[in-house]
TrEMBL record:
Gene Ontology MF terms in the entry: hydrolase activity
Cofactors demanded by this protein: Mg(2+)
Classification lineage: Bacteria, Pseudomonadati, Pseudomonadota, Betaproteobacteria, Burkholderiales
Lineage top rank: taxon: Bacteria
Keywords from the named record: Hydrolase
Protein name: NUDIX domain-containing protein
């Protein structure tokens, strides 16, 4: 199975527990960052690139969480824990150069917290998978 999507996972720990970086797409609800792996591009490099393009964050891939068959449009995601190179605020907006120049509103979502209807089922399933994989690594 060869991945065609890269998903950078950025986490932070607060007094409320582990939180994952998420954003609100103006047309498609709540999501986590993911994007297409370019031909010949290593998946970890694609994750770092997508993180920068979609959020403005410069980061490094620190751990490979494996592949996930999403069941959606033949997407196979390569999941990578990424560490930002700078401290991140609680919320911010980022104007994307691609994706029609949309403004994405970033926020932190507590892992394990119920997901509202604003989350597409694809991202619900992805967060469930990510939570399980993080727990196996002792990061829950």
């Amino acid at each position: 199975m060869k991945p065609n999507k890269a998903c950078p996972i950025v986490l932070r720990r607060t007094q409320n527990g582990l939180e994952i970086l998420a954003f609100e797409h103006p047309l498609a609800g709540f999501q986590i960052v993911k994007g297409t792996i370019e031909p010949g591009e290593p998946p970890a490099d694609a994750a770092v690139r997508e993180l920068r393009e979609e959020s403005g964050i410069t980061g490094v891939a620190t751990a490979d969480l494996g592949l996930w068959e999403s069941g959606y449009e033949q997407q196979v995601w390569s999941l990578h824990l990424c560490e930002p190179m700078q401290p991140l605020p609680d919320t911010w907006e980022h104007h994307t150069a691609d994706d029609d120049g949309h403004v994405f509103r970033f926020f932190w979502h507590p892992l394990g917290e119920a997901l509202s209807d604003q989350w597409h089922s694809l991202y619900r399933d992805a967060l469930s998978t990510i939570g399980i994989r993080l727990a196996r690594m002792g990061k829950s």
